[in-house]
Amino acid sequence: MKIGHIDLGDRPVMLAPMEDVTDTSFRLICKEQGADMTYSEFVSADALIRNIAATTRKLNIHPAERPTAIQIYGREVEPMVEAAKMVEQAGPDIIDINFGCPVKKVAGKGAGAGMLRDIPKMLEITKAVVNAVGIPVTVKTRLGWDHESKIIVTLAEQLQDCGIAALTVHGRTRSQMYTGDADWEMIARVKENPRLTIPLIGNGDITNPQRMLDAFNKYGVDGVMIGRASIGAPWIFNDMKRALGDTSHQPLSDADKFAILRRQIKESIDRIDQYRGILHIRRHLAASPLFKGIPHFRDTRIAMLRADNYDELDAILSHIQHDILPETTKLINENA
To answer: Which of 74, 144, 170, 285 has a beta carbon 3.0–4.6 Å from 149's, enabling a disulfide?
Structure first.
């Protein structure tokens, strides 16, 4: 699969853009685990052109994570064009336009998925950004605003006509937010449209290798994008690549996974500071499948999520790794 001149190989698996998740450190870890392409956190066009420091920091790219895309969002043409030109100077491989974020502070202001209520403006922004930069521009969006307006088949054609190099479709409407099941049948209808010639990337509920294989084999997408399932589990890309027959990726032990979590914690602290770095990483710890299904884990979980310095958190992780998990495994084996 190619996006412009960028060859991602056959059946690429990508890390989705996620606010407060896909910072440089996490993207690099996911890349090492097998992600074929990574995406930045959301970059507000308005904040970028105002030179807001927290936004400009999102433009940092580690050379080892390439190919990577920086994703921008906004609701007006001129700020989006200006922001796209600034992003291009930061040197990403691709600029992605966010027409899919459903959260109220974005969509409620007409940006992100809010653009699904103003298709002419969406297309005007897309065409203007494509014409303003010299690198590939892609779009990520949803099926439509709500159940009564699933317009994605027609919209995909319109976006292609604006000159985008690839399209990512999340299989939910904006009204669904992240509830219910992603509608992969609708994504397949987009792919089956003979007028669509650009690559189609499917997104939504890709939580395990079988769902990824279904996306390729049953629904025919060119690539898949993994979002929430990677939080606390960047090794999911290793699992996916092995399911696709990539023998360069080997199964990881629990020790390997704990080492990855510790690395995330340390790099988050180094990037920000100890207190805020640990606050940032708690979302990953809370979501990690390493801790799912452990009996009587509530008190330990609370302690883990309340720890406010690295030494305390490291000690709790060591207790889980060396005391709780072996005992849990022993109980499972005895009851098998």
So the answer is: 144
